[in-house]
Amino acid sequence: MVLKNIARAVKNIYKPPITRRYPEVPTELPDRFRGLQKLDKSKCIGCGICANTCPNSAIKIVRARVSPDSEKTRWFPAIDIGHCLFCGLCIDQCPQDALSSTKVYTTGVIRWTHEELLYTPDMLAREVPVGENGE
């Protein structure tokens, strides 16, 4: 066993390292990666199709302000990221393309309590910061 490991080490001595220096060097993500959702409030009509198609019932339709400066409210989706499967069905079924997927996956998800994983429409629209870097 020891000789086998030494032979493997000598064989791979000139190959590039396999390990990555995460988080110093971020991992390159594929184009189809599904990270945290992003909401475009100007496109959302509050129809609730995203909530009806969610297989894990992670999406609720709630009333929220249209913009940070406005007192006017409308219906928007709120997502419980702790229950979300990141399957993308809500994004695929949105008739107005108001929901989209981002490549953010660590800065916004690592939280300590369940209440911090309830993403309001303001958080989904990135009107308030959701991650450490404000993503």
Description:
This protein has 135 residues and is α+β, with helices and mostly antiparallel strands. It has one domain (29-125): 2-Layer Sandwich (Alpha-Beta Plaits), CATH 3.30.70.3270. Helix content is 18%, strand content 17%. The protein has four helices and five strands, in the order H-E-H-E-E-H-E-E-H. The protein has helices at residues 2-11, 49-53, 89-93, 121-124, and strands spanning 37-39, 59-65, 73-80, 99-101, 118-119. It has a three-stranded antiparallel β-sheet. It has a two-stranded antiparallel ribbon with strand order 1-4. The protein is elongated. The termini are far apart. The model has no long low-confidence stretch (mean pLDDT 88).
Do you know the CATH topology?
Answer: Alpha-Beta Plaits
CATH class: Alpha Beta
State which percent range the strand residues make up. Answer: 15-25%
Q: What is the rounded Rg? A: 20 Å
* Order of H and E elements: HEHEEHEEH
The number of strands is 5
- Continuous helix count: 4
The biggest sheet, with number of strands, parallel, antiparallel or mixed sense and barrel status, is: 3 strands, antiparallel
Main-sheet strand order equals 2-3-5
Helix content: 10-25%
Instruction: State the CATH architecture.
Output: 2-Layer Sandwich
Number of domains: 1
Mean pLDDT: 88
| Cα distance spanning the termini | 48 Å
Task: Briefly note the structural class of the backbone.
Answer: alpha+beta
Shape: elongated
Low-confidence stretches: none
